[in-house]
Amino acid sequence: MLNHWSKMAKSHWKEHLPGYYQKLQKEGTLEQKLQEAGEKAKEMLAELMEQGMRRNEALEIVLPQFILLTPEKNLD
Predict the structure, then answer these.
(1) What is the SS3 assignment for the chain?
(2) Can you tell me the distance from the alpha carbon of 26 to that of 55, in angstroms, rounded to the nearest whole number?
(3) Closest CA to 37 of 55, 13, 57, 53
């Protein structure tokens, strides 16, 4: 089951990384990759906050690394 972060990744990847999204779908690994990204984001967010980082600062690190990946070029 997809957590909040996995669902955010799914929406972002589908819109901004359609090639990657379709590749994972074709390989049958999309749900697994989304779950992994969501879990890693959740774990890293918790770790950073335990180290004293504020949530919004931690999100600035975590989201681009696991969830809001850099969009593919030439989407127009």
Answers:
(1) CCCHHHHHHHHHHHHHCHHHHHHHHHHCCHHHHHHHHHHHHHHHHHHHHHCCCCHHHHHHHHHHHHHCCCCCCCCC
(2) 35
(3) 13
- CA nearest 74: which of 20, 22, 17, 9? 17
The residue behind tokens 């600062």 is 57
Give the separation between CA 41 and CA 28, rounded to whole angstroms.
Answer: 22
Rounded Cα distance, 17 and 37, in Å: 15
Asked if residue 35 has pLDDT above 80, the reply is yes
**pLDDT score, position 15:** 96
Q: Is the pLDDT of residue 54 over 90?
A: yes
Average pLDDT over residues 18-45: 97
67 and 12 Cβ atoms separated by less than 8 Å = yes
